[in-house]
Design brief:
By secondary structure, this protein is an alpha+beta fold. It has three helices and seven strands; from the N terminus they run αββααβββββ. The protein has a domain at about 145-215: Nucleic acid-binding proteins (OB fold (Dihydrolipoamide Acetyltransferase, E2P), Beta Barrel), CATH 2.40.50.140.
């Protein structure tokens, strides 16, 4: 046919591209040119008045803070307060001492004012009536007994027999009984057979709780 070419050279495939031999060198030249243009544009910036200004420096890296410092700054930011400068232990101690001293002065002043007000209230109020002592020494009525001396052998001591007679509650019979006690006789006035009167007293010995008052009748 007349439409077909006479040579037998195959046509290039559409999927394959022909890469020139100096492709790598061209790519390197393009990248270098772009870098030079960017550096020049960043370095030389024309100001409105015609002067050339340098581009700003690269930002410094953020300060590295410890977790404690970050929390402290966050608290101050929430409270709206300014961060105080770091203080040494001696400065903190002196500040605490000064604070305690101020509080002590205020506390002392307040207590003095309260005491003065209390004194004024006491002076204005009427004096209370004196109260009777709770543990006052009250002497009750001492018991007295009348009996017959049955022994006076001991020194300053007599044995007195107390005779009692009472009517029985059910049988209405007279029941007689007696008991003895030891009494103190300071002058040895009473003798055996005398009728004496004794009165109750404080403990004078292991067995004596009574004291001789007088001799009512002498023995015959």
């Amino acid at each position: 046919m007349a439409d077909q070419p006479d040579d037998d050279t195959p046509a290039p495939s559409p999927e394959r591209e022909v890469i020139p031999e100096n492709a790598d060198a061209q790519a390197v030249e393009v990248v270098a040119a772009a870098t030079d243009e960017g550096d020049t544009a960043a370095a030389d910036t024309q100001a409105p008045d015609g002067e050339t200004t340098a581009s700003p420096a690269v930002a410094a890296p953020a300060e590295q803070l410890s977790p404690k410092e970050r929390r402290r700054k966050a608290r101050l930011a929430r409270a709206g307060a300014e961060a105080r400068p770091a203080r040494s232990p001696e400065e903190r101690h002196s500040e605490r001492v000064a604070t305690r001293r101020d509080k002590a002065v205020r506390r002392r002043t307040r207590r003095l004012q309260e005491r003065a007000k209390a004194a004024e209230r006491r002076a204005a109020s009427p004096a209370p009536e004196p109260l009777a002592p709770v543990h006052a020494t009250v002497e009750g009525a001492r018991r007295e007994r009348q009996g017959i001396v049955v022994s006076d052998k001991a020194e300053k001591t007599i044995v007195v027999r107390i005779d009692t007679a009472r009517r029985h509650r059910r049988y209405e019979k007279i029941v007689r009984s007696s008991s003895t006690l030891h009494a103190h006789d300071e002058n040895n006035e009473a003798h055996e057979g005398d009728v004496v009167r004794v009165v109750e007293s404080r403990p004078l010995s292991r067995t004596k709780r009574w004291r001789l008052v007088d001799v009512l009748e002498r023995a015959r």
